[in-house]
Amino acid sequence: MEVLSEADASNPAQVEKNAEAIKQRGNEHFMAKRHKEAVECYSQAISLSASNHVLYGNRSAAHGGLGAWALAAADARRSVELEPGYTKGFYRLAQALIASDELAEAESAIENGLRADPANKEMAALKRRITGSRRRHTQQVGKGAVAATTGGGGVPKKAAKSIDLRRAGLYDDKEAPDNRTQDQASAAQSHGFGSRLEAAMRFA
User: Where does the pLDDT of residue 145 fall: very low under 50, low under 70, confident under 90, or very high at 90 and above?
Assistant: First the structure.
């Protein structure tokens, strides 16, 4: 961790310059998929510039790359608290909430993002995915209820009680929750989440 000289620490312009330099290193780590190092850089930059919404947004993305969805959501929330018009913050919040199966909150984040930027195509696409997944889930649950009542060959009771996000179409195979080990599942989630964020992210 870098330590500022007393002169630098007393110069607001220099502090911001140092925070920007550290942020850029974090961006480089993120693009190279070194998400842990990216988190460390963004955290250091935040310690110098705690009101910079972009830093929280970028750290949210890095947490997402590690599969740390609760931390990703917390940073995304902070980013939009600091800058209510920060569409990327709402997008990252929605992604983190989807990964945590918190679809109602994800929908709220998407609506807020669309209010900030009604023409945002990525946000609109995310909204369509959630709407479609809810519709398909409702159909699955209905079929499961019929099978449980009739004893037929429909959806098993266990499956009818939970959302199968892969079959509902909300996740791709790399993101979907499954029965692999936690490390394997987290790695797969991180890859899918990080890949889309790299495409969506245009660092400031």
Answer: low
